[in-house]
Write a structure and sequence with these properties.
This protein is α/β, with parallel strands linked by helices. It has two domains: 62-340, Zn peptidases (Aminopeptidase); 379-593, no CATH class. It is built from 23 helices and ten strands. The strands form two sheets. Strands 2-3-5-4-6-8-7 form a seven-stranded mixed beta sheet, sandwiched between helices. Strand 2 (105-113) and strand 3 form a beta hairpin.
Length: 601
Amino acid sequence: MEAARLRTRGRRLRRGTVERPLNSRLVRVAFLVVAPAAVAFLFSISTTGTLPRSPLAPIFDGGAAATLASTLSVEYPARVPGSEGADGAARWYAETMRSLGLTTEEDVWSEKLADLGRVDLRNVVTVVPGRSEDAIITVAHRDNAGTERTFGDNASGTAALIELARAFAPQKPGPDLLPQHTLVFVSTDAGAYGGAGAERFAASSPFAERAIAVVVLDGLGERRRPRIAIAGDEPVSPARTLVRTAAARVEEQSGIAPSLPNIPTQLLDLGVPFARGEQGRFLGHGIAAVTLGTGGPHNPVGDPAVRVQRLGQLGRATEALLDSLDASAGGAFRTHDTIFFADRAASGWTARLVLVLAVVPFALGLADLIVRARRRRLPLAPALRAQRARLGVALFGGALVWLGAHTGVFPTGAALPMPPYADLVTFPPVGRLLLLAGFFVVGWLVARGRLVPVTSPSPADRLAGLIVGLALVGVVAIALALTKPYALVFVLPSLYAWLWLPLEGRAVLRVGMFFLGLAGPIIGLALLREELGISPIDAALYAVALVTVGYVPVGSALAALVWVAGAAQVGALAFGRYGPYAGGAEPPPPGPLRRAVRRGR
């Protein structure tokens, strides 16, 4: 009789049962569709040529530029946009250019900036006519935040702009001195506050429409390694040839290969476009642009003590780059999305294809789960109601952020990235933030009454809850695949970590798989924190502020809230706190809102 009993302990569960619902073989086989895209990505990695170097040696004088930078910092140490110091610095720059025999034009406009309110801003533009109307634009902002730490912020870039223009001063007029292209030197305002001046020029200047490339100078005088910034306000990158030529000219003059953002940073910048540098404003308008500078990307301010040697090296590299661009015979450089490696680059369309096809195995596995759930008549209705309640809580949190933006808790203003020393980060309104958090807790407690498990949920209830949570996350993934493929880097870890989330067994494994699914947003915040040099909490507040100022689109914020709602349902399952809505009662009794409406009647 003992031998005739069914042995279940240690027996492998049959695929398709509630205890083993996922058809893992289907998911594994479906990954074959990703292989051709991955091969295409690998084959797209190639070296990129550089523009020829001019036979004439650069004449940029680092010592003279350092003197100009020191003069600007001493005479106008505080150059906050809209202040008297900023106006004085604009006059000083224009007078210095005119003393070289160059003419300047001033563009004055009003802009509402986070922390500053509505202020008058000034761009000062110098044009050197060339044989062609196509323009090569060199940009440097002259403003700063007006604190002792920022007195030297980009004084070196402004000084380099003047020294570069000196070579084209009309001292010896003649047709042979004309450059091939029109050269435009732009001293922008509010560069330290998101690059409002660069945005103004890119959006309204007729020279921007004819630009073949833009070179931005920012912090050339620091002692650290030269770097090139390439992130944009849209998921695009500067042309390969522009980046490689800039890197080659910098290495020739300094003997050091400039640093580029690492691959994870590039993917995240393309996923949710974020660019602190002014090159981002031009790339957002489809104009190829790079920023030359020194120091790590996390350094928020310039170095008041200008290093003459480094300033001279990068000044000569910029002059050589402008000469190479001026000698080029082609048209404007294109701004396709590209993934840059140390000395190679990969086509962006192949990276997008890999990310999009990576959703297919998850989608097939989820579809199989849904079909099996319908066939086994799993209680999906209570799970859907629980997910709807969690989605309502997430949207309520978004509404509180919107309310905070309209009551001064979070900043508003031009759709530009804020500086890392913004008031929200430096002097956060702790009391008002806690008040908003209190409102959110109250909203969560109202919804929680229907979500707390009354009894221990059955395996069928837990599986139904997981399927619904995965379905909501899958909807976000498919929407991103159709509209913002690079944003999938934030979502893909959650798709597969949670698809294999074990509903039975040790809680440690479930919790570990859940946090593995959060890798995308966690890494994104970590990279943002490193780039800005702020704490993790400040990085989270900064990310929210990017939404309230309009730099991150509302659609992206809504997609994030929907994903959070799905993550909340999966997290409840991982921590053993999931229960079907209202204990699975059919139909569920009226909730607090319905009862309040009925009482009002």
